[in-house]
Write a structure and sequence with these properties.
Layout lengths: L2 H21 L10 E5 L4 E11 L14 E9 L8 E11 L4 E7 L13 E4 L5 E8 L4 E27 L8 E5 L15 E4 L5 E6 L3 E6 L7 E3 L9 E5 L5 E7 L5 E7 L7 E2 L8 E8 L7 E7 L4 E7 L7 E7 H5 L11 E2 L3 E2 L5 E7 L21 E7 L7 E7 L4 E3 L5 E4 L5 E9 L6 E7 L10 E2 L6 E8 L7 E8 L10 E9 L10 E4 L6 E2 L9 H4 L10 E4 L5 E7 L5 E7 L35 H19 L5
Parallel strand pairs: 1-3
Antiparallel strand pairs: 2-8, 3-8, 4-7, 4-8, 5-6, 5-8, 9-39, 10-11, 11-12, 12-13, 14-15, 15-16, 16-17, 18-19, 19-20, 20-21, 22-24, 23-24, 24-25, 25-26, 27-29, 28-29, 29-30, 30-31, 32-33, 33-34, 34-35, 34-36, 37-38, 38-39
Helix pairs in contact: 1-4
Length: 643
């Protein structure tokens, strides 16, 4: 039976179970129901169950009392109690065959109600057995440690918490200032993985991510102070934000509870108030991007990939998001000119970028589906296997697109499962970066190709990463002088990014001669120390079933300011998931003779409550319907496969 048919049946079964569980409201309590971990009380054990049902997840975990069992853990581990060391909170869950359970970890301020979405899930890889996780320097407060059923039939479990220490790591990022972005209040932290970052025309900085809500942080003083904006309380999916030439903000959220539809929120007053736009796309959309035209106010492009069919859609608004019109439907089958493709395997586009004259470019990653390729891939068949990267170019405002294929690694290597980064400089030279592992090895490296003719032809590939065995989530920024480009990624010395003991840092390599035949690179660290200590699952929404860690989701992002200095957004999950903004304060930029300061003509807006739109919430029953929809899409695809 093919993997597709297997996943279709699994999603169907889980969806039906969740619909039933949505009706059930009988829950169980851990024994005891609460406890404290402190410098003087460093070990706890509790038990729970029996529990039945399932609480599967796509991107976020939802559960009701019948499928989740909470333990209130009060954490008080001040750094002053551990001289020259960091405290580490160790959690371990043990259950019996044939039950499959997860540790669902809610930092203070998360999991506000029983149906709340959460950020951090650690799954047992096999039915029965155990799963463990360690959190460095956990923040003080009331944590919820949740035992969640993936598939349970009368499951009982034992969970323990203990404290160990590690030496305090030194600061290895003198050229970057790292800032934890704030929560709704001083006492309520907030964080989101998969953050995007965009700099506006007047120096404003915006970071987005799918956190407790759809989170959008804004700064109007060069990144010194930040304000969290949550324009709606709809269940967060993929998020993105863009800034128009007049400072208008366009923020998007992919809403699971509305059939994978998108809501766009528009603000003309720096995020003080927001209005909701119409849906640019409805059910079956995924990984959306918004790009404001840099010269025409009110003009924004919206792109996404279709889950069921090999299509990239382009929508456009010319009236500040009041109406959206589809202007292009790009068939991936036309690109490769054959009938075998793996649509679910991660095909997706990147955001549109603009040359100085209005020419548009975007990336499309693609997997040809050949029988046996995914099933027999080394070393883990749960990873998506993207083998080709296309760059699409439009010279007529997004209506028609020409194709080039700078990366063709079919049967040679697998690129990052859906995100290749594309940037350009002031002279319209293009820089494409991606991470890739060979088909017969574990090691993953970052590569770059360049184009000096608007993507018609491409240079040979150049390897950017030189240290560490695993290098993933590559993102690039240029916007300056020809040949100057920054590349940022996550680096680990672990041989395999699926290694559960891997430790990760954010690093950056700079080149001032990237257009030459032999580019040279200067490497520096972005994060001051380790920001993730676990595997990084590359299987997308299938990570929960495969037992992979998807705390960081699928990417990090960067942008370049008017001085040519780098701004980076990434997630740190060591002490509780937080979104980090990193600003380059030293080293070389992408502009040789840059102005002395970052221009900020805008003023900081008055601080008054942002207008919020009605909440929809998400429950287990509704989520079961989403899983059944996914099962239907997989079933459609499975019908095309040989028996």
């Amino acid at each position: 039976m093919s993997n597709v048919r297997w996943w279709a049946r699994l999603c169907g079964a889980l969806g039906a179970a969740l619909l039933i569980a949505g009706v059930m409201q009988v829950g169980f309590a851990a024994t005891p129901a609460s406890g404290t971990i402190s410098a003087t009380h460093q070990r706890l054990t509790w038990t729970g169950g029996p529990m039945v049902g399932s609480a599967g997840a796509v991107r976020r975990v939802t559960c009701n009392p019948s499928t989740c069992d909470d333990f209130a853990l009060n954490v008080d581990l001040p750094l002053s109690a551990f001289p020259n060391h960091l405290p580490v909170l160790n959690l371990k869950l043990e259950t019996q065959v044939p039950n499959l359970m997860d540790i669902i970890i809610c930092a203070p301020g998360h999991c506000k109600d029983v149906n709340a979405a959460d950020y951090e899930v650690f799954s047992a890889s096999d039915p029965g057995g155990s799963v463990s996780h360690a959190i460095q320097a956990p923040i003080k407060g009331a944590w919820i440690i949740r035992a969640g059923c993936t598939l349970c039939a009368g499951a009982t479990y034992t969970m323990s918490a203990s404290v160990t220490t590690i030496p305090i790591p030194p600061n290895h990022a003198p050229n970057f200032k790292n800032v934890l972005l704030p929560g709704p209040t001083a006492d309520q932290p907030e964080g989101a993985a998969e953050p995007g970052i965009r700099l506006g025309p007047d120096g404003e900085i915006w970071v987005d991510g799918p956190g407790g809500s759809a989170d959008f942080w804004g700064s109007y003083d060069g990144g010194e102070t930040w304000k969290l904006n949550q324009p709606a309380e709809d269940a967060p999916g993929d998020t993105w934000i863009t800034v128009g030439p007049d400072g208008t903000l366009y923020a998007d959220n992919l809403v699971l509870t509305k059939g994978l539809a998108n809501l766009v929120y528009v603000s003309k007053d720096h995020g003080v108030t927001w209005t909701e736009s119409t849906f640019p796309a409805n059910i079956d959309s995924d990984r959306q991007w918004l790009t404001a035209d840099p010269k025409q106010a009110g003009v924004v492009y919206f792109t996404y990939h279709d889950i069921a069919d090999p299509l990239i859609w382009v929508y456009k608004t010319t009236d500040y998001g009041q109406t959206w019109i589809p202007i292009a439907s790009i068939s991936l089958q036309e690109i490769v000119n054959n009938g075998k493709f793996d649509t679910l395997g991660g095909n997706t586009s990147g955001p549109i970028i603009f040359d100085a004259d209005g020419t548009q470019h975007m990336t499309v990653t693609f997997t040809d589906f050949f029988e046996g390729t995914i099933e027999n891939a080394h070393p883990a068949n749960e990873d998506f296997h993207i083998s080709r990267i296309y760059v699409l170019t439009s010279t007529d405002n997004g209506v028609n697109w020409s194709f080039s294929m700078p990366v063709d690694d079919y049967q040679k290597g697998y690129t990052h499962h859906g995100h290749a980064s594309l940037t350009n400089d002031k002279k319209n030279n293009l820089y494409l970066v991606w991470s890739e592992r060979p088909v017969d090895s574990w090691k993953t490296d970052v590569y770059m190709e360049t184009s000096t003719d608007r993507g018609k032809t491409w240079s040979p590939r150049h390897k950017v990463s030189t240290n560490g065995a695993s290098n993933i989530f590559a993102t690039a920024g240029a916007k300056g002088d020809p040949g100057r480009v920054d590349v940022v990624w996550l680096e680990s010395p672990a041989k395999d990014f699926n290694d559960h003991k891997a430790q990760w840092r954010v690093v950056m390599a700079q080149s001032t001669n990237a257009l030459s035949a032999t580019p040279t690179w200067t490497r520096m660290q972005v994060s001051p120390h380790i920001m993730h200590a676990a595997d990084v699952c590359q299987a997308g929404t299938l990570c929960l079933a495969s037992g992979g860690n998807r705390n960081l989701l699928d990417y990090i992002w960067m942008d370049i300011d008017k001085r040519g200095m780098a701004h980076v957004a990434y997630a740190n999950d060591l002490g509780g998931l937080r979104t980090v903004y990193a600003k380059q304060i030293g080293g070389t930029g992408t502009i040789a003779n840059a102005p002395a300061v970052l221009g900020t003509k805008t003023t900081k807006p008055a601080t008054k409550p942002a207008t919020k739109l009605p909440a929809t919430g998400v429950g287990t029953g509704a989520f079961g319907g989403v899983l059944l929809s996914v099962a239907f899409v997989l079933w459609r695809r499975a019908r095309r496969l040989p028996a």
